[in-house]
Amino acid sequence: MKAIIIGAGMGGLSAGIALRRIGWEVRVYEKVREIRPVGAAISVWSNGVKCLNYLGLERQVAALGGMMEDMAYIDGLSGETMCQFSLDPLVKQAGQRPYPVARAELQDMLMVEFGREDVTLGAKLVGLEDDGTTVTAHFEDGSSDTADLLIGADGAHSVVRPYVLGHESTRRYAGYVNWNGLVAIDESIAPARQWTTFVGEGKRVSMMPVAGGRFYFFFDVPLPEGLAADRAATRETLRAAFAGWADPVQRLIDLIEPERTNRVEIFDIEPFHTWTRGRVALLGDAAHNTTPDIGQGGCAAFEDSVALAIALQTNTLGIEDALKRYEKKRTTRAAGLVLKARRRCEVTHALDPAATAAWYDELRHEDGSRIMHGILSSIEGNVLD
Ligand code: FAD
User: Fold this and answer.
1) 289 CA to middle of ligand 1, Å?
2) H or E element: which one contains 363?
3) Which residues form the domain of 11?
4) Which interval of the chain is the signal sequence (predicted)?
5) Which atom of ligand 1 is nearest to 35's Cα?
6) Which of 102, 201, 217, 309 shows its CA 20 to 30 Å from the CA of 246?
């Protein structure tokens, strides 16, 4: 059996690894010539790590993962600690430590495991045909390839999605801009083994450790969509957005490298439940584009890959039947994560200021159990539970 995968991101490469493991021949096609992940790092929560473990990457992902032992929320303006607690109960309940990892390293790990020689770069999908027995992908340069199955892992702006759905989808602006990057750990800003988040005014400044003595940092600021962005002015923009905030936030702004700091406007797509059409299936952001507010978009892509391989391996009534079972297994869970992230986004970013004020108040009375329960409710119900 042969599969064509469109897109060499986290979704496409993990699906490629998963299908190889069940004996499929796989070819991945990627439109860009050089893969540059959009963000600096990503938190792979226990559900995502379990999927990587299942794919044989336990040792590799552990080597990339930062040691995130504690968690704290700090009042961004006063610098006062609102709550601070150990994540150990979460790890014990989930059965796996979560790992914040640098994206470029995660991408490289997946690429090495899948095999660079089986990825065609510079191949942009422009059309596809399913004749009921095979599916053929057509690329911009006039080339084509035919297989038993095609997976659209082509991200938020998927071209496979409208083929599957029969219509275009609208992306919904979530109301905020995220700046992210990596800096060397500086314990005058935050403890090395802690996920530290400063909150106030509907904004967030967050740091978590990744391997190599680095913090993954991000700044979230509620802003209108489509503002002009000047990378060289990133430090000044952040200084203005966080004027009056506590010293550690100012020190972090001093440390960032504007040329290597990403600016991303955050969007999602209303969940939908049609992920397959004939021999074609969607996976990852193509199927469920979420805001990053619960850090589950990429984890859900890993879950999709494992679920797809299990469906293809365990069902013998043909590919279309296996894809329908994959769809049935995945859409409700993924939709739940998208909608949960959207609700968190609204509270975190003061889209409803009263709810945000109540959350800040809750944080001052938090012993960790409510927050860990919230995180665990996203982790649990995953494909390997
Ligand atoms: P992508 O990574 O977008 O890959 C799609 C690939 O398809 C791209 O390489 C693209 O070039 C290629 N492609 C597109 N069109 C074509 C075409 N026509 N032909 C060929 N190739 C094509 N998730 C988490 O789990 N934890 C986090 O902490 C987290 N933090 C995030 C922070 C931010 C700021 C953002 C924006 C997202 C975050 N996410 C997080 C979500 C995560 O980044 C995505 O869910 C994940 O990258 C999706 O992977 P993917 O492979 O589905 O899509």
Assistant:
1) 9
2) helix 353-364
3) 2-171+268-379
4) none
5) 9
6) 102
